[in-house]
């Protein structure tokens, strides 16, 4: 693409605006400077507050659901099916969006170690009017979603399946993060970040990276994955690159993004997905005590632990500009209370 960054932003924005979208999130989210922590780290850190998107405690899915649910409605869907861990942020924000749009939402949460006592996201799900069908931990979520979709279809319904394994909805989630990247650059056009860090499974990173590519920015991206490759919801760099390519084609632009340019790391997972690591606990306390900003133990805490480690190891150089994209997830602070204190 040619032209100045401002012209490119305008062009990409008009391509995004041409896509079906429902309004769910408070946008643009703030980009908060972090002067106290920046002084400690010797860098220039800001946080993109996508924990503040509204929609029943916020998070990155509020932004992504705007495109995904508009697509579902354009497709004639009369209900949405989502399955995941009991403490799913995706499910919580989907239930809230469904309530707002008058769309029936079926949630298939796994009865795992965080489903009882009822707390955090799983508690909030129960208050938002979704139909909740618990499934046992040894069942395949992808299979159970498909079985329910079949059953609803044969009853004359038109279900739209989202979440892991649903490539179209993941691709639309990428578009939402191209939008977030435009917001970051628009907020500080004279302070292009040297680095952007985020917790991600794929869509968020793919969108930020596609946005940087389309604007021609030299920014380095680091996606911190909350799960190892053996997890059912893990996406490989190849799959993430394909999501970016799919989003580029929806926007009608070319992209040179390939798997070897996708920078994700599973280095900060700790023991496993869903349980806080020592690094995430330190990160939560550090950002909380220096900036009054909360992180969650499952995603953003591990993402921020990665950022702190890159600074400590000198991979991020002195004075460099860093944006951390805070993807939300804060209800997990309550479902994981015993890990956080004591
Ligand atoms: C879902 C989620 C992510 C991962 O988002 P992707 O778009 O799949 O990369 C990161 N952080 C939080 C808090 C989430 O809920």
Let me know the number of strands. Answer: 10
Gyration radius from CA atoms, angstroms = 19 Å
Structural class: alpha/beta
Strand residue content = 5-15%
CATH architecture of the largest domain: 3-Layer(aba) Sandwich
Largest sheet: 6 strands, mixed
The span between the termini is 54 Å
Low-confidence segments, given as residue ranges, are none
Calculate the mean pLDDT score and round it: 96
- The SSE string, one letter per element, is HEHEHEHEHEHEHEHEHEHHEHH
Indicate the CATH class of the largest domain. Answer: Alpha Beta
Please work out how many helical segments DSSP would assign: 13
Spatial shape: globular
CATH topology assignment of the largest domain: Rossmann fold
User: What small-molecule ligands were found?
Assistant: pyridoxal-5'-phosphate
Strand order of the largest sheet: 1-2-10-7-8-9
Binned, the helix content reads: 40-55%
Describe it.
This protein is an alpha/beta fold. The chain contains 13 helices and ten strands. It is globular and about 60 Å long. The model has no long low-confidence stretch (mean pLDDT 96). Pyridoxal-5'-phosphate binds next to α3, α4 and α8. Belongs to the ACC deaminase/D-cysteine desulfhydrase family.
Write the SSE topology.
Elements: H1 5-17, E1 31-33, H2 35-41, E2 44-49, H3 60-74, E3 79-85, H4 89-101, E4 104-110, H5 120-127, E5 131-132, H6 141-154, E6 159-161, H7 167-187, E7 195-199, H8 203-215, E8 220-224, H9 237-251, E9 264-265, H10 278-291, H11 300-312, E10 321-326, H12 332-335, H13 337-340
Parallel strand pairs: 2-10, 3-4, 3-6, 4-5, 7-8, 7-10, 8-9
Antiparallel strand pairs: 1-2
Helix pairs in contact: 1-7, 3-4, 3-7, 4-5, 7-8, 7-9, 8-9, 10-11
Residues 59-61, 89-90, 173, 199-205, 296, 299-300, 327-329 line the site of pyridoxal-5'-phosphate.
Cofactor: pyridoxal 5'-phosphate
InterPro entries: ACCD_DCysDesulf (IPR027278), TrpB-like_PALP (IPR001926), TrpB-like_PALP_sf (IPR036052)
Pfam families: PALP (PF00291)
């Amino acid at each position: 693409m040619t032209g100045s960054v401002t012209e490119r932003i305008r062009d990409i924005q008009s391509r995004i605006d041409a896509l079906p979208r429902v309004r769910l999130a408070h946008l643009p989210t703030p980009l908060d400077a972090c002067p106290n922590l920046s002084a400690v780290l010797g860098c220039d850190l800001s946080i993109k507050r996508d924990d503040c998107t509204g929609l029943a405690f916020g998070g990155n899915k509020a932004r992504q659901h705007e495109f995904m649910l508009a697509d579902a409605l354009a497709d004639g869907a009369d209900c949405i099916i989502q399955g995941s861990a009991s403490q799913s942020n995706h499910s919580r924000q989907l239930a809230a969006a469904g309530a707002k749009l008058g769309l029936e939402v079926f949630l298939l949460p796994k009865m795992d170690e965080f489903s009882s006592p009822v707390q955090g996201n799983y508690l909030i799900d129960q208050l938002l009017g979704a139909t909740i069908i618990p499934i046992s931990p040894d069942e395949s979520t992808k299979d159970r979603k498909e079985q329910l979709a079949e059953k609803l279809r044969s009853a004359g319904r038109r279900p739209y399946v989202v979440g892991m394994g649903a490539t179209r909805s993941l691709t639309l989630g990428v578009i939402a993060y191209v939008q977030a990247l435009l917001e970051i650059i628009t907020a500080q056009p004279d302070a292009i970040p040297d680095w952007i860090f985020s917790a991600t499974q794929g869509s968020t990173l793919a969108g930020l990276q596609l946005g940087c590519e389309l604007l021609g920015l030299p920014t380095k991206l680091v996606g911190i994955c909350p799960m190892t490759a053996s997890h059912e919801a893990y996406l490989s760099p190849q799959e993430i690159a394909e999501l970016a390519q799919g989003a580029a084609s929806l926007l009608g632009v070319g992209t040179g993004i390939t798997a070897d340019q996708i920078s994700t790391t599973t280095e900060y997972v700790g023991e496993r997905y869903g349980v806080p690591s020592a690094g995430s606990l330190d990160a939560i306390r550090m950002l909380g005590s220096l900036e009054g900003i909360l992180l969650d133990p499952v995603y953003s805490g591990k993402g921020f632990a990665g950022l702190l480690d890159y600074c400590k190891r000198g991979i991020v150089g002195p004075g460099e500009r860093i944006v951390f994209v805070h993807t939300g997830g804060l209800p997990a602070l309550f479902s994981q209370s015993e890990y956080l204190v004591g």
